[in-house]
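Sat 14:20. Reprocessing the chain from the morning session after the first attempt stalled halfway. Input below, unchanged.
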Amino acid sequence: MTSPLEELLPSTRRALLHRIARAQTEGRTPSLVAAVAREGRLVWSGSRSSADGNAPDADTQYRIGSITKTFTAVLVMRLRDEGLLDLNDPLERHLPGTGVGDVTISQLLDHTGGLSAEAPAPWWERTPGTLRQGLADVLGERPVPHPAGRRHHYSNPGYTVLGSLIEAVRGSSWGEVLRREILEPLSMGRTTLTPVAPYAEGWAVHPWADVLLPEPSVDLGLMAPAGQLWSTAADLCRFAVFLAEGHDTVLSAASVAELRTPSVPPEAGQWDGGYGLGVQFAAQGGRILAGHTGSLPGFVACLWVSVEDGVAAVALANATSGPPIGAVAADLLGIVADAEPRIPAPWRPLPDVDQALLGLTGPWYWGTHPFGLKLAADRGLELHPLRGSGRGSRFVVEPDDTWTGLDGYYAGETLRVVRRPDGSVDHLDLGSFVFTREPYDPEADVPGGVDEGGWRGSAS
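Finished this time. Tokens:
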């Protein structure tokens, strides 16, 4: 039985319906479908349509465009986790002969490889993939117009190359690998390379008149890993939950979190956020949303997830211009998160405690800056400034009884407890910085020494 706490309030459901109704009307789109997931399950879906009695539902397919890129990125990360490649490997090591082989896999994933934004003419989104038989046809004569690693420049050919990389390493087609490694384990049976009824037709709406023009729907061929997929609001909610939590047989929570870690800011004017490894970010209502937008002729799509709120939203429409789909999905997520904020998990004491670690907790000083050290689960530590904002981090314990920073300024840095010959604690060493129990403790080994005269007032 569904708990009442899992259901959305009537006022929340009405606000969601009002938002998509406004989006369909103001966006002048033949149809729009949306869905919201909370705490791992679908809790709402709704739609609006210009055709009476023919409204789509959460099982109706729409083309999702560049949301496909996130699926491709997941497949690459699986190869990394299996030890078949490293993200810092040059492409040439695994896929020789492309002409862009010095670019690394991570640079392709976060669009810093310097590759062109689009394939050469003719317009690839509206023409069959058979016109681009090989990677040379996709990359063109000048495939790398920017120095690699210097700027974020969104590249559809870059994800085409990643699709070919997956095929080369796996020995199977990108579509088959996708079905076997993501779609089936996540029960995404309504996500396909070509449309399967029921699906929406793609339309262009005249900018100055309320009239329609059918848009072509073509197989993108080699470009498929950049934008081929058709999916549904329900399936994409399943994928959004995966992007928040990971999945035992697809990609671990740690690797999914790596996808969601911003690598670079976007180019000016693209969006308010950044880009990770196949994942876009948007700043909205004080939240950082992770996911991706997508568009192809006749369709716009967006998936956003707020891991902190435990809420995800999907919006799909079948118009070439359509509503501002990223803002629509963000608004749907915000409506739920703001009206019905996540109920915190109950506080519970640690199951056990290491007395030696407990003795390390409390105030420490980096020079004169006060910090608080807190004991966390599994012998982890948390270090945060006690005044204002500053260099705070969480730390995980290592087998040699040091700690490694997980986030913030000290991510990847080593924290050590430095002891005196008698075993008492002298100071904490954090990436060479010394933290002492008193500001510039004269009893501690502080680099540069501590003036023998000690602290003094103006009369001194």
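The longest helix spans residues 10-26.
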